[in-house]
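> Could you send the Possible glucoamylase (Diverged), 15 family prediction when you get a chance?

Sure thing. Input:
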Amino acid sequence: MKTKSIMQKVALALLSFTFSTSIVGITPSRTMAEETSFNIHHSLENLTTSNGLAAATYSEKDRKLNRFQPHIYSNYDANTSTKNYLSDAYFGYKINGKSTWLTGVPITSVNYVNGTNIINTVQKDGNFQFESYYFTPFSGDKESRMLVMLVKATNNGQDQKDFSLYSEQNLNLGGNEDNKEERSYYNKRKGYLKEYKGDNIAIYKNINQEGSHYTSGIGENSPVEITNRGGHYLDKTTLKADNLVCGYENRNQCGDVFKKGTSRWYGVVIGLTEDGNEKKLSKDVNYLVNNKNPENLLQNEKNWWNQWHQGEIGPKGLSASEQAVYRQSTAVLKMAQCREHGKSHGQILASLIPGMWSIAWVRDGIYSIQALLASGHTKEAKEGLKFMLNADMRKDETNPTKNYYQRYIESTNKGAPVYGLGVDLGTNYAISVCRYYGNGTEESDKNDNGYNVETDGWGLVLWAADSYMKKTGDKTFLNKYWNTLSKHDADLLVKLVDSKDGLMQPDSSIWEEHWTPYKVGNGIRQRFAYTNITTYNGLKAAAHLATLNKDKQKKELYTEKADSIKDAVLNKMVVKSNVTGKNTLGSSLEKIAEGTGYHDAAVVEAINFGLVNPKDSLATGIIDSFNRTLRMKSGSPGYMRNQDGGDYDSNEWAFVDLRVATALKNMGKDKESKVLIDWLTNQAHANFDLIPELLTRNNSDYFGSIPMAGFGSGSYILSINNYYNNLR
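Output:
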């Protein structure tokens, strides 16, 4: 991976900027809360565009689009994965018989048009400059999957009589590199190239029809080879072949001159469907174009985003770089939310492609929903909640009235492979024990140690529902979903409290320790602090919801159980750190009993959720233990997630950094909090304003799934709001 390493000396400087809703006019600057040196550098090469329907990626290294898929999620169901249909797509040009593809032209700059899904590159070759734009359109408001590629060519040299602009679109219509027996033809009446295989259809629409010519072929008749030898596209198509490639050329007409100091716009819309409905696809593509020129099409997309940002909430006092990252973070959350109709609608992915976590986790989704609420996007937050509350749980094939994963909680068989807890829930739960397929049904991943059965998400959902109610006062929402939130969520958390010690029953929790007991030999499994913390917070939220719903009995029940969990955690999970000698919270009861390896960043939420008073010495002890055991040794101010020692665990976690920053702010440690916020702000600003999942332990390179939504952009938004809105 290409890395432009720049050691940046940054000093205390909080610049005062009023939060702006304009996409243009931002000139970011860097800030740092204490004078120190950190390795701020560019290490990310892919940018993602998504409109909640389709997603595509652009490679800075290869200077081309390299992925386009018709759903934003990884898997529709257990048997249907989302395919990538794009091999590559890019522009080229020709002057005086010499052809050049932009894949071979150095990039001067690449970034998002800030606060949007529009990828913008600038390339210079001799006297010509090319500004390219790539996006999956929100504007046009149609359901078909489309990808727009535009280029503005500027002639800074001499007048040119012989000038052509080329585009190459190489889709594999079988999906996932299957390019066998593809077919193509040109629809003269509607003015587009069609490439297809079975029900999979791609439409290529040249937006600029002036001087437009087309071709499709393979080998020496492919667009690439024709262009490389300085030829022209002669409006010919290949009916059928393996690995068909399609392309357009816009060339000067007779007597036409591309004058010095002028610019020309070109562009192609790619439409894609898997259902064979060419009529609908072509209608939607033509509706998007609708006699617009490429510049108009770009402006329409910018206008859509400007409108979406209207009313967005952001703290006053942000630096320009914080403002840029904040706005791009809200855009990432919008891109990560599915807009398909039906059960898929509203789900928020943990990450976008090319990240591997393009899956809707409960936990990640809730942090995204909280960030949407904090930034004023209540409509999207509500849709995210409704998705979870309306989702279908996986049913037990042997007893269809029961949820499948309920067996692991309710079974009295404590042996392999069930390892049941023997807790009768009394009714089906409503929130997934892990995550969701794209079609809105429950999923849990499995490895040699069994499934993930996580109940921390149940408390998180209650927290988000209560936050939504506090923000909106939407009584219709509460009336509709109170039974689900109470009977099929909060009540079940109450039942999962162990009467013997007041702590929650074992689960897989935040770091997804699969269901097989921690030590199979003696049946020990882990009872995690994080799940107790989220349950405490969730039941407090449920008590407030019960108050709003005038349900006094439930309010008292949830309040009592929340208080008892708090007492149990403080009585049984506080341990004197074997490193600092101060009290801290251990990751699990079992790790505490072992006497080692119990330092875990997830317990920071005890401070953020109020289970531990931020002013208490225990809060200080928790942070001190992090600083001694989890702090990165690469020169970064950030943290790994725990002491488990695996490669994944031991990289730096942006989510952890930002939640620790939030806790530090709550504790009155503003300076330390700002160091972490500025560290990630500056890293993000060097990497397309995106927040990563991880940074590598040695070099702080971007790593893992990027762009990350709830654990990335969402956590950044929450941290920024917490810091500035509580500024002392």
